[in-house]
Amino acid sequence: MIKPDLTLTVAEDLGKVHFVGIGGSGMSGIARLFINKGYTVTGSDVRESDNVLALRALGARVDIGHDAANVGDADTLVVTGALWQDNPEYVLAGERGLPVLHRSQALAWLIQKHRLVSVAGAHGKTTSTGMIVTGLLGLHQDPSFVNGGVIESLGVSSAAGADDLFVVEADESDGSFLLYNTTVALITNVDPDHLDHYGSLEAFEAAFVEFAGNASELVVVSSDDVGAVRVTAHLRAHAQAASPSIVTFGEHADANVRVHSIVTDGPVRFTVAWNGADYSAALRIPGKHNAINAAGAFAVLVGLGFEPQAALDAIAAFGGTERRFELHGTVGGVSVYDDYAHHPTEVAAALSAARTVVGSGRIIAVHQPHLYSRTKLFAQEFADALETYADQTIVLDVYGAREDPEPGVTGALVSERFQDSDKVAFVPDWQDAADYLAGIARDGDFVVTLGCGDVYRIVPQLLASLTRVRG
């Protein structure tokens, strides 16, 4: 994989900009903002997608497939970290001596001269970013933003606003969130992840300490997550006169913004205690974790000076983002959802949210493990989460993304760790998996595909098999 050179000086004018992997949610959002600024944008990706079509409609030339010829007369290359170093477009840029920017560097360049709200955390940052943006818009603000997923009510993952506020989902996976000149930092959690990059839990948490310490005004941080608590303790122990203010949020009794009275039988309802007063809200989306995400977004908005109840009411209008418990269809009484969850904690949260709205039906998880390293490290944790929160699980094979296959590491590492083998099946072939699902599904069941790879692409097969059997 390509890691960003955090020491690289970025030119004031980037000329014609070519995006390699332009179709991803983050990359397409950044490309859209470059187009809005009047830049000539080209790009390439491995397949057609809605993001590709949208960028073409805005005037970008996007080629399908990676080829050196795609670079054309570009002056700057923007790449995603998931790119292989033998990518022909990346190789050609090196031969020509073109500046090559990691997507985080391109985003940092866009953010210049704005007051930046950066949202980081192993989970919840896409939803929390969407809540903050939705809240600001509901409060009659006009922020710029780049999110890791399309915000349902807006239909886009990024936009250029007229205000000085800029809200971004900050990626901690490769350390690039340290690039940003952050004004307000939100840390949703510091649950161990991306240890393939950091090497140790200590290094992972140290990066969050640095990220939070770089904020110039405010740090909003979870009171419930043990890693976040350690980060907060370090920040307070080393506080100086110029250190940012710290506001904690969560269910913990000592949280500055405390969530309580959470009701999860459907779209989640809850109350937030802040500065001696209670403020209540009902979201449009389910899940206890989303009540806590909303509390973090609330803390950011009141920290920016907005009136508490108005801020919470504006956040409550958030309707979700793509690939976060997104309904794709119902066939014969069986509903098929897709979710981006790719860490055991995220899987547990997604499935527990599904449990609150499935009623008397069952939950059938279709889990695609992501990365060989993560699968090997967390196989037992994934099995525990899936067995606890799903009634039945179908495990697909590993989506390797930026990693080479590792001998012996397959989806079977997860399925073999279930205590009850009757609750799980390892089915690496997608059509076989779709047919297996159709054979076990019952009226009222929820099917939830889980993973941040390409598992969403199995959804049409699932719906087709359900139609053949139940339609």
From TrEMBL:
It is an enzyme of class 6 (ligase). Signal peptide: none annotated. It catalyses: UDP-N-acetyl-alpha-D-muramate + L-alanine + ATP = UDP-N-acetyl-alpha-D-muramoyl-L-alanine + ADP + phosphate + H(+). GO terms for molecular function: ATP binding; UDP-N-acetylmuramate-L-alanine ligase activity. GO terms for cellular component: cytoplasm. Residues 119-300 form the Mur ligase central domain. Its EC number is 6.3.2.8. Keywords: ATP-binding, Cell cycle, Cell division, Cell shape, Cell wall biogenesis/degradation, Cytoplasm, Ligase, Nucleotide-binding, Peptidoglycan synthesis. InterPro entries: Mur-like_cat_sf, Mur_ligase_C, Mur_ligase_C_dom_sf, Mur_ligase_cen, Mur_ligase_N, MurCDEF_pg_biosynth, UDP-N-AcMur_Ala_ligase_MurC. Gene3D superfamilies: Mur ligase, C-terminal domain, Mur-like, catalytic domain, NAD(P)-binding Rossmann-like Domain. Residues 16-114 form the Mur ligase N-terminal catalytic domain. Residues 323-453 form the Mur ligase C-terminal domain. ATP binds at residues 121-127. Cell wall formation. NCBIfam families: murC. This is UDP-N-acetylmuramate--L-alanine ligase. It comes from Cryobacterium melibiosiphilum.
